[in-house]
Specification:
heterodimer; A: mainly beta; two-stranded antiparallel ribbon; 3 helices; 13 strands; B: about 150 residues; alpha+beta; OB fold (Dihydrolipoamide Acetyltransferase, E2P); 2 helices; about 15% helix
Chain lengths: ~260, ~150
Amino acid sequence: MIGRSMLGTACALLAVTAEAQTPVDELPGLTYESLAELPNWSGWWVPNADRIDSEEFAIQPPPFKPDARQAREAGRAADTPDPLRHCRAWQFTGSSGGFTEALELLFTPGRVTLTNERGLIRRIYTDGRPMPDALEYTNTGTSIGHWDGEALVIETTGIDPRALYPRRGPGAIPFGENVVIRERIYLEDADSLRFDVETVAPDIFTAPYRWSQSYRRLSKTMGNEISWCSEFDRSIEPGTGEQRFDMTPPPGLPPPPSR
Amino acid sequence: MRARKLALIAFAQTTLLLSVSGSAHHSYAMFDGSQVKTIVGTVAQLEWVNPHVFLWVYVPNPDSDAGYDLYALENGSPNVLRIRGWSPTFFEEGELVAISYWPVVDGQNGGHFAVLTRADGTVVYGAGGPGGSPDAGKAIPPPAAPQVSGR
């Protein structure tokens, strides 16, 4: 359990104010009928090329503390095999999509559900409920949101401090305690969805980390599951996590052409 | 300042084209990113699986008992390749293709897919790979049919 009071509130950019002015029973999207009044975010959304992975991206580098940066660099240099790193449950550390993961946002009364192709599920409550006083740590935290006009504003807390930042893999470091992630999601144009994100992670950052990520709509593309689990990965030895190049022919490989 | 930012964006876009799904999965250390090689052969199978699609190709080799070597070309994930127009039926078995790839460093017949050219000249790009070679993103000539006899 963590105390709500420890989470901090300093963020004018994404301040949660709208729901305080609107009676709860009049909030947008509380009924199936009123969902039609919300912006059209249907379809799948894929990241634009304006953000590659996380901290490696030179345009929006996170403000790592020196010891956190050192831990990241040491971990990346070691490329420490971790046989489970590709099979762990997805954790939300600021990016709902990421490098290749398309995402979708599903509207139901009082809630927005965000999923991506790798299995992330974020349940964002927009029914006017407050952030609980006490939270249990989870992989994706607890998300409370509200509609500010056409924008969805979200605050997420309660992310497991052991969650790996920026994501599992070489050089990942624990996210730490008292993390707060604030997002503002809105359409930049008809087919471009933008996430403005502020991440407060006092154990690893010297200051709030503000960055943005844009996605483009793929209306006619059906989302597909993607798994990096080493169980079926020819590049990773499942037992050890070591890299390999497995040339065991696949089942059903036809014979070579006749000579 | 603006020019520098634009340069960074251009670099990022180029890097994305050649290196989707990179460091967080594996480091591509098993591939030699400093060079690309080229093969001409026939498609044996497109193995459409997570997390990496593999293209298996028979390449003529008169010095081998079978007359062919089997090559394996790692590629990006099914979802990112589907966005780029690939599908499980993207190639026909026996289709003649020319492929450039980053070779695997352990000397096996294979590597990471870079660019493919069909017999009709259609150029097909993949996803991911170690990058590093200036030839990696270049289209290669179509295979000169017939490269493989008996089919």
